[in-house]
Design brief:
heterodimer; A: alpha/beta; Rossmann fold; 4-stranded parallel β-sheet; B: mainly alpha; two-stranded antiparallel sheet; 4 strands; globular
Chain lengths: 316, 342
């Protein structure tokens, strides 16, 4: 009896899993000699942001008659290594990789160098401050720039005086550290601007909401603006401010998510910053393309962020 | 606290000794309440804004979500189990409820063309799905014999995965006004707090006044003995975890109402907050010991701590350290209490 039921439970789980794992892999057919084939290893195609990067990559490939083979590592470092090696075996002409873990890219870098094909890392930088080795490229954005852009946009709107709270992402994430650093770089230039508090909302809307409620209790009318490391937390702040009837506090986020764009349109959020993910994917494949053609592209390409305010939100 | 005085002063008077013993018993039993009161007094001295009615309701509202989860966790831990999946179950039930509770004209509408649903639809969906996922937890534990830690660890990952697949990674927002009104007030009382209070009352009755509640204690105290005395352990385990999952669904509704949006990554780590609240409240991981009022006090200790540390402007990094230390100290006090009892 109990055995049967346990079997049934396992079956239910298994079927659920199978039903969930839709979507087949793209088989890379090695076409004629002329068409270039580029292998694209995504970190995780369930991550909305990564689908934007992949879309940019596909667009460039289509426009230039390049065949693109897309693999999805689902945030698994080992799987990504296997996928990249399989694509090298298939004979791709170049590789574009969004690293699952920037600290574990050594084997992939080595494999590409051994096969002497160009490798472009996109979106997440495995090299930190260092220059990539020969034949390896990086295309991405600098988080600190997003922070600076937020700070500059705030000073423009608020003036050179005011009190600011910073909602940080997960404290150990590079995005949280660098964006906050960029905020401070700008705000510290103005004697009239005070940072009242900087706390972590762990990227989450509900935690941004709770923290803002607590800041309103602690600082009341002193609080003039909130800089959030991402839009989700910024939208939580907006919610708290609305419940408290505070329309005077400026809220700025990063990411330009659809919800945040709505909020900027309706005026509840002052601004957000768009990371041009589509551009990263596009330029990533372009860099690989150029490298294959022997055009020696820049080894590191920075894609700029774009500030989104009420003035330009309709363009996105 | 006032523990030493009793040992030092040997009174010949039996009556006064009895009184003292009673006082010590109360202190031991309700030690965590005194910790809470001390915290409240301390913080209100340091920050005059702490004890304002508005802030008190803030603390209660902010505690409601993990407080509700801690109620189910109390039953589960009392039965000598654990449930690591409630945070992910909150996310999955939350995104499903949110997808059924969007306005008709929502941009990025999940079900295109779906008319505006009455609030009861997402509510029932979240509670039913939560109970279903919980019953899978309970079923796995009861029928395969795998440890609760492992079964619910699996569910934690699976439910989070389904939440991501269901949404494609983006939040579901633009909820109906009746849905978001759950984040508002009735009179001066925040609705999340009212829902929390109702959940507390129902769970209290369930644990203290029903056969099911007695079975929870019996299973946690000694499974073999419970089985011998005719308790249907398997059925009760499924019910316990189903109830925990259902409360995660309730928490999801409060979450969605309050935040106005549910992200598939929502409530990551909340299972640990719920376990911490339960543990601070004196529920023993050795099984058989646990109270609902304890879970409430435990949740309030965490809520007051988080709110207070922000009001006092304590550094974000230090806040985590303080929170961790409080949990450990609370459990040390609690273990001493239970050790003396035996």
């Amino acid at each position: 009896m109990s055995k049967k039921i346990s079997l049934l439970l396992v079956l239910v789980l298994a079927i659920g899993l199978l039903a969930g794992c839709g979507g087949g892999d793209t088989g890379g057919d090695t076409a004629g000699e002329e068409t270039l084939t580029i292998g694209y290893a995504s970190s995780n195609m369930n991550d909305t942001g990564q689908t934007f990067v992949a879309d940019g990559a596909k667009t460039y490939a289509e426009e230039n008659g390049i065949e693109i083979v897309i693999q999805d590592a689902q945030e698994d470092v080992v799987r990504q290594q296997d996928q990249v090696k399989a694509m090298i075996e298939q004979g791709v002409d170049a590789l574009v990789v969004v690293p699952v873990d920037t600290a574990a890219m050594g084997p992939i870098t080595d494999a590409a160098q051994e096969a002497s094909i160009p490798l472009v890392y996109v979106n997440r930088n495995p090299f930190g401050e260092d220059q990539p080795p020969e034949g390896i490229y990086y295309v991405g954005s600098q988080e600190i720039v997003a922070g600076r852009m937020q700070g500059e946009a705030l000073v423009e709107m608020m003036g050179e005086e005011g009190n600011v709270g910073i909602l940080m992402g997960i404290l150990s994430n590079e995005g949280a550290i660098k964006r906050t650093e960029g905020n401070k770089e700008i705000l510290d230039q103005y004697a009239g601007i005070t940072i009242l508090a900087e706390e972590t909302g762990n990227w989450q809307r509900d935690q941004g909401l709770s923290l803002t409620e607590n800041w309103l209790t602690a600082y009341g009318d002193e609080l003039n603006a909130i800089l959030a490391n991402n839009d989700e937390m910024a939208l939580g702040a907006v919610q708290a401010l609305q419940s408290a009837g505070r329309e005077d506090v400026l809220v700025l986020g990063v990411d330009a998510t659809p919800d945040a764009q709505e909020a900027v349109k309706s005026g509840t959020m002052a601004a957000t910053v768009l990371q041009d993910l589509n551009g990263q994917g596009r330029i990533g494949v372009e860099t690989a393309h150029k490298a294959v053609m022997g055009e020696s592209p820049d080894q590191v390409t920075w894609i700029d962020f774009v500030p989104v305010t009420a003035d330009n939100v309709d363009e996105f | 606290m006032a523990k030493e005085t009793s040992d030092q002063t040997l009174t010949s008077n039996d009556q006064s000794r009895d009184k003292k013993q009673i006082a010590i018993e109360i202190l031991k039993k309700y030690g965590i309440v005194f910790v809470l009161i001390l915290m409240v007094i301390g913080i209100s001295f340091l920050s005059p804004r702490f004890l304002t009615p508005n802030n008190i309701f803030n603390v209660l509202t902010q505690s409601a979500i993990f407080g509700i989860m801690a109620l189910g966790m109390t039953l589960i831990i009392t039965s000598k189990g654990i449930d690591l999946s409630v945070g992910s179950v909150l996310a999955l039930t939350g995104v499903v409820a949110a997808s059924l509770g969007q306005t008709a004209m929502a941009n990025n509408k999940y079900f295109e063309g779906l008319a505006e649903m009455p609030l009861i639809v997402p509510v029932i969906a979240a509670l039913a799905l939560g109970a279903f996922l919980g019953s899978i937890n309970g079923g796995l534990i009861a029928y395969t014999g795998i440890p609760p830690f492992i079964a619910t660890l699996g569910m934690m990952t699976v439910a989070r995965g389904f939440a991501l697949i269901y949404t494609g990674g983006s939040p579901i927002s633009n909820l109906t006004s009746s849905f978001t009104s759950l984040g508002g007030n009735i009179g001066v009382f925040p609705i999340p707090v009212i829902i929390y209070a109702v959940a507390v009352a129902i769970t209290w009755v369930l644990l203290n006044n029903t056969r099911f509640g007695k079975n929870v204690y019996a299973i946690g105290g000694n499974v073999k003995a419970a089985e011998v005395s005719g308790v249907n352990v398997k059925k009760n385990l499924i019910m316990i975890y189903a109830y925990g999952g259902m409360l995660a669904g309730v928490a999801a509704i409060v979450f969605a109402g309050r935040v106005g949006s549910v992200h598939p990554g929502a409530a990551t780590g909340y299972e640990l907050t719920a376990i911490a609240a339960t543990t601070i409240g004196g529920t023993s991981h050795a099984g058989g010991i646990g109270t609902i009022w304890g879970a409430v006090v435990g949740a309030l200790v965490l809520g007051v701590l988080r709110n207070g540390l922000t009001l006092l402007g304590v550094d974000a990094y230090w806040q985590q350290i303080v929170e961790g230390m409080i949990i450990i100290v609370a459990v040390i006090i609690d273990m001493r209490k239970n050790a003396k009892k035996k």
